[in-house]
Design a protein that fits this description.
Blueprint lengths: L2 E7 L8 E7 L8 H14 L22 E2 L2 E2 L21 E5 L8 E3 L2 E2 L2 H10 L19 H11 L6 H5 L6 H13 L7 H15 L8 H5 L10 H13 L4
Parallel strand pairs: 1-5
Antiparallel strand pairs: 1-2, 3-4, 3-5, 6-7
Helix pairs in contact: 2-6, 3-5, 5-6, 5-8, 6-8
Protein name: Fumarate reductase iron-sulfur subunit
EC number: 1.3.5.1
Pfam family, one: Fer2_3
Length: 249
């Protein structure tokens, strides 16, 4: 399988970037996007050239570090799959693949296709935690949660923080990511202690760094965890609740 690649090169966030052309005459359809980059880098190393920098870790669709753009789409052409799970079956012999970093003002480029997504970490620092009494752990059935709430919380806890939703959004909004965290923690009994403070702090943080949500829906379309678009409603709901309840809740 022959492929023509246009791969992004950028030394650091202050340097001018450009696409570098690479022809791959021996790609295999079962390769993932990351394995294709591994294959290219192996050839570069053997030739004494600098390999392309890109981020990855588990390569099982769990860690969320492998985000990049494939022909302008976060992760790749298949819906709701991370880049490490996107296979070349989706492409044809002779196709051109343009590989570049996730594009957002909130994601400065570190090198090549590696971006700084610490803006998402700062959102979590503002409220992505629960306050519990230290000491002996309570019995498993001490805090009761009904089945519906437990399943809904787990569905939203599936967010892997890859940041594709921000790159897909025309406004660069992080409402799907933040909404998923708010829904998950709100439904957890141990997360209700700081519910109002969490909503205010997390929403204030995304409004400083990310754009507004206009419900385009591209975010949910590319989310590897399948977080539903309805998660963004938690932003308005939790902020309104916090305003009505007062600053101490």
């Amino acid at each position: 399988m022959k492929l023509h690649l246009e791969i992004w090169r950028q030394a650091d966030r202050n340097s001018q970037g450009h696409f570098e052309s690479v022809d791959v005459p021996d790609a295999v359809e079962s390769m993932s996007i990351l394995e294709l980059l591994d294959h290219v880098n192996s050839g570069y190393v053997e030739a004494g050239k600098e390999p392309f920098a890109f981020a990855s870790d588990c390569r099982e669709g769990i860690c969320g570090t492998c985000g990049l753009l494939v022909n302008g789409r976060p992760h790749g052409p298949d819906k709701n799959k991370p880049a490490c799970q996107q296979r070349l079956f989706s492409f044809n012999d002779g196709d051109t693949l343009k590989l570049e970093p996730l594009r957002s003002a909130a994601y400065p480029v570190i090198k090549d296709m590696v971006v700084d997504r610490s803006a998402l970490d700062r959102v979590m620092e503002k409220g992505g935690f629960v306050s519990i009494m230290a000491g002996t752990a309570p019995d498993a059935d001490h805090l009761l949660v009904n089945h519906h709430d437990a399943e809904l919380a787990l569905d939203h806890a599936a967010c892997i923080g890859c940041g594709a939703c921000v790159a897909a959004c025309p406004n660069g909004a992080a409402h799907l990511f933040t909404g998923a965290k708010l829904v998950h923690l709100t439904l957890s009994p141990m997360g209700r202690m700081e519910r109002g403070r969490r909503a205010r702090n997390m929403v204030d943080e995304i409004e400083q760094t990310f754009g507004p949500c206009s419900l385009y829906g591209e975010c949910a379309d590319v989310c590897p965890a399948g977080i539903p678009l309805t998660a963004v409603a938690a932003i308005t709901k939790e902020r309104a609740r916090a305003a009505l309840r007062g600053k101490d809740d």
